[in-house]
Structure formats: C-alpha cells, structure tokens
C-alpha cells in the first residue's frame, strides 16, 4: 500500500476517535481561546478533524506529484472524506453552541450516500472510478471548515459577531446540492442504460 493510501486509511481510523470524543457523556471541562469557551472534548474532536482534513489534502497532493494515483485511492479517498464528514454533521446535531440543524445534516448525508451509490454503479457497469470534480472539492473544503469552526464555537469570529462557521455550513450545503446534481447529470447515461 502506497503512502497516499496509508494516509487515507489513517483518516478512516480517526473517525471512531472523533465520534467517541463527541459522544462522551462526561464533562472534560472547558478552555477559553480568544475569549470563546470551548468544551475540551469539542476541542480535541476539532484537532482530530483537522488532522483528518490535513491527511485529505496531503494524500491527494502526494498521489498526484509522485504519480501514485490508484483506483483504490480514487475510490477510498472520497469515501473516507464522506465518512468523516457524515459522522461530523450527525454528531454536530445538538452538540455545542453552534449545532447543526438536523435537516441540513440529513441533506448532506443523503447527498453523500447518493453519490457513493452512483460511483458504485459506475464501477460495477464500466469498471471506471470517478474522481472528484471541482464542485465536490469546494463542497468538501467548506464542509471541513464549517465543522472545525462549529466545533470550536466560531472561535476568532465570535467576538466580532460574525457567524463564519454557519456561513460556511450554508455554502457547504449549497455546494453539496449543486455537486450532487452535477454528478447525476454528468452520469445520466447510467440510468438510461438501466431502463
């Protein structure tokens, strides 16, 4: 297994740690950063999520520069992204001061599952693995930024009364809908062949 794929697998291993930190029933206290109180478990979960986001950036860069792009990587990398992002949005429903509305989490999770299902159908029918488009990359970027800011209770922007985490969340939602529709429109032949 090459380095980019190992980073992808490492990101998948971080998911249960991330979930556990947010699911802990006991209080671990809180810290104040830039005048914003952040529960310790949310801070630790944010750090785990940041490490996962960095591995996402690194594995793609290394794979392209070192010509280590594999079908496994093209499939597992976006799958790992979807797994951590879906876990984050589900866990953020009702967590923290800046929680995520359940309907937003539901739309994002449904989009992720639908696109993953489409990818599986295409692999099964054509043997072709679809790499992420620019719209999917924009969606992932805003999802990750919004999760980090929401976990950190909008730190650095809270005192300015700028809801940057929530803004990024809505941009991520719009990008999720757009990129999901784009995937299905670009690959509509899959459905034409099925009927």
Automatic annotation (TrEMBL):
Alphabetized Pfam families for the sequence: CDP-OH_P_transf
Keywords of the record: Cell membrane, Lipid biosynthesis, Lipid metabolism, Membrane, Phospholipid biosynthesis, Phospholipid metabolism, Transferase, Transmembrane, Transmembrane helix
Chief subcellular location: membrane
Domain of life, source organism: Bacteria
PANTHER family in UniProt: CDP-DIACYLGLYCEROL--GLYCEROL-3-PHOSPHATE 3-PHOSPHATIDYLTRANSFERASE 1, CHLOROPLASTIC, CDP-DIACYLGLYCEROL--GLYCEROL-3-PHOSPHATE 3-PHOSPHATIDYLTRANSFERASE-RELATED
UniProt record similarity statement: Belongs to the CDP-alcohol phosphatidyltransferase class-I family.
Any Gene Ontology CC annotation: plasma membrane
Function: This protein catalyzes the committed step to the synthesis of the acidic phospholipids.
Protein name, entry field: CDP-diacylglycerol--glycerol-3-phosphate 3-phosphatidyltransferase
Reactions the enzyme catalyzes: a CDP-1,2-diacyl-sn-glycerol + sn-glycerol 3-phosphate = a 1,2-diacyl-sn-glycero-3-phospho-(1'-sn-glycero-3'-phosphate) + CMP + H(+)
InterPro entries, per the entry: CDP-alcohol_PTase-I (IPR050324), CDP-OH_P_trans (IPR000462), CDP-OH_PTrfase_TM_dom (IPR043130), CDP_ALCOHOL_P_TRANSF_CS (IPR048254), Phosphatidylglycerol_P_synth (IPR004570)
Transmembrane regions listed in the UniProt entry: 12-34, 40-58, 79-96, 164-185
GO molecular function, one term: CDP-diacylglycerol-glycerol-3-phosphate 3-phosphatidyltransferase activity
Pathway(s) of this molecule: Lipid metabolism; Phospholipid metabolism; phosphatidylglycerol biosynthesis; phosphatidylglycerol from CDP-diacylglycerol: step 1/2
Membrane-topology descriptor: Multi-pass membrane protein
Cell location: Cell membrane
Protein EC: 2.7.8.5
GO terms, biological process: glycerophospholipid biosynthetic process
